Amino acid sequence: MNRLRRYAPALLLALWPLTSCAPAGHEPGHSVEDTRAAVDFPPALKQHTLSNMRDHLQTLQRIQDAIGRGDFDAAAQLAESRLGMTSLALHGAHDVAKYMPQGMQEVGTSMHKAASRFAIEASNAGATADTKRAVGALAEVTAQCVACHAAYRFQ
Predict the structure, then answer these.
(1) 61-to-45, 55, 82, 95, 138 alpha-carbon distances in Å
(2) Residue-wise over 64-81: b if at least 16 C-beta within 10 A, else e?
(3) What are the angstrom distances between the C-alpha of 58 and each of 30, 96, 133?
(4) Residue 7: CA atoms inside 13 Å, Cβ hemisphere, count?
(5) CB proximity list for 140: less than 8 A, separation 6 or greater
(6) pLDDT tens digit string along 15-46?
(7) Is 46 exposed, middle or buried (0-12, 13-18, 19+ CB in 10 A)?
(8) Closest CA to 131 of 16, 13, 17, 15
């Protein structure tokens, strides 16, 4: 319980970007016109990309779990290997990028770079116990996810 109190503020800050996903003025139960840009991928590549996005989301959850346990080294390793710049080959980013609009490519690259920066800050937090920069860096990762999902959709 003491550990939860210690890391609760960090977790709240990490989740903050996810609280503003609904369009302004949106109320639950009311339909809102979807104005996101439609992106057309070949069917197999669309399924592959959706699977990658689910993996990203699961990785974010595992990172938050590691932070909650105070295991910043595990959080750093997960971030770099599953989300960071070194994960691009794992997810077949080269094959997918040619179907993405330029803006989608840019936000995707920003997410991967932010994940690598988070990995560095999480490693530092593991050594210093100063978590503010790591949590802020994780918020930048999720902010890129939110930005992409707010701007683009598969058709």
Answers:
(1) 24, 10, 12, 26, 11
(2) bebbbebbbebbbbbbbe
(3) 29, 20, 22
(4) 20
(5) 114, 117, 118
(6) 444 444 555 555 677 778 999 999 999 999 99
(7) middle
(8) 13
Q: What's the pTM?
A: 0.80
| Residue 23 CB neighbours (<10 A) | 11
The span from the CA of 125 to the CA of 112, in Å, is 20
Q: Which helix (H) or strand (E) holds 37?
A: strand 37-39
Read off the DSSP letter of residue 130: -
CB 103 within 8 A of CB 97: no
Q: How far apart are CA 91 and CA 111, in angstroms?
A: 14
Sign of CA dihedral 21, 143, 58, 7: negative
Q: What is the pLDDT of residues 70-120, one digit of tens each?
A: 999 999 999 999 999 999 998 888 889 999 999 999 999 999 999 999 999
